[in-house]
Design a protein that fits this description.
By secondary structure, this protein is mainly β. It is built from 3 helices and 14 strands. It has one domain. It is elongated, with a radius of gyration of 18 Å.
Length: about 250
């Protein structure tokens, strides 16, 4: 991990945080058209693909809610950057970078979820919804779809890197103040605002997650009524902070 500017948890220079997320599997009517989805997929494919050649799913990947497990919160600017940088990145299994991808992200957008209000403001929370696809005629493709739709593969994890971070209490750079994320100061819980996401590395299917209301969305070929499974979990977030002088190279 040294090549990514990461030293691991507890390093003052390159702290590594682990955030876990909760979610449920959903099936939504409000999806882009098949033509729009295939147009985005074919920008990444080496040869034109038809809709009946691919499986398509999407997920609520992250939001502007405060994450209780790592004390961080994405700004709208950070969510927008994640939308840009996740397109074209790999979906792996268990963050195993020695293995080839099982799917690929091809589209992302910021959406509001009025059914999940921000606990501090009461306003709808804002989310990155990311779409991904894989090929039907590859080995294990149908098993992947069946396990995802049947509730076995419920969780996903995104690896990303950021620079900086500022304190929610005093707005100072994160490591230049004495406030501690998770502590309460005069009735206000401290957390770290993340404004600058440097890179999105990959997203993975993983075994366990514990944050609030992230979700995998169902088959986008067929429209269906919304359904939820309360309490189902979705993803871990793996965060890497970069020093101010670090300049990252594009991954693609």
């Amino acid at each position: 991990q040294g090549g990514e500017g990461v030293r691991g948890r507890g390093s003052r220079r390159h702290p590594m945080l682990i955030t876990q997320s909760r979610g449920e599997i959903l099936d939504f009517k409000e999806s882009p058209s098949g033509e729009e989805l295939m147009s985005s997929i074919n920008r990444l494919s080496q040869k034109p693909l038809e809709e009946d050649q691919v499986y398509i799913r999407s997920m609520y990947l992250c939001s502007n809610q405060r994450c209780e497990s790592d004390g961080c919160r994405f700004s709208d600017n950070a969510l927008g950057t994640i939308c840009e940088k996740v397109v074209g990145e790999s979906v792996l299994a268990g963050h195993d970078k020695r293995s080839l991808p099982v799917a690929r992200f091809f589209k992302a957008a910021i959406v509001e979820r009025p059914e999940i209000p921000d606990p501090e403001t009461g306003q709808p929370t804002r989310w990155v919804r990311a779409w991904f696809y894989w090929l039907k005629e590859t080995q294990g493709a149908r098993d992947l779809a069946l396990n995802m739709d049947g509730g076995i593969y419920r969780e996903v994890s995104i690896s990303w890197r950021y620079r900086g971070g500022r304190c929610s209490i005093c707005d100072s750079p994160r490591h230049r103040c004495s406030h501690i994320p998770g502590e309460v100061y005069e009735g206000r819980t401290c957390y770290t605002w993340i404004d600058e996401v440097v890179d999105v590395l990959e997203g993975s299917l993983v075994y366990r997650g514990a944050d609030r209301e992230t979700a995998i969305l169902g088959d986008h070929h067929d429209e269906g009524e919304e359904r939820t499974e309360e309490g189902a979990t979705l993803r871990d977030l793996l965060l890497f902070e970069l020093p101010p002088e670090f300049e990252t190279e594009p991954s693609r």
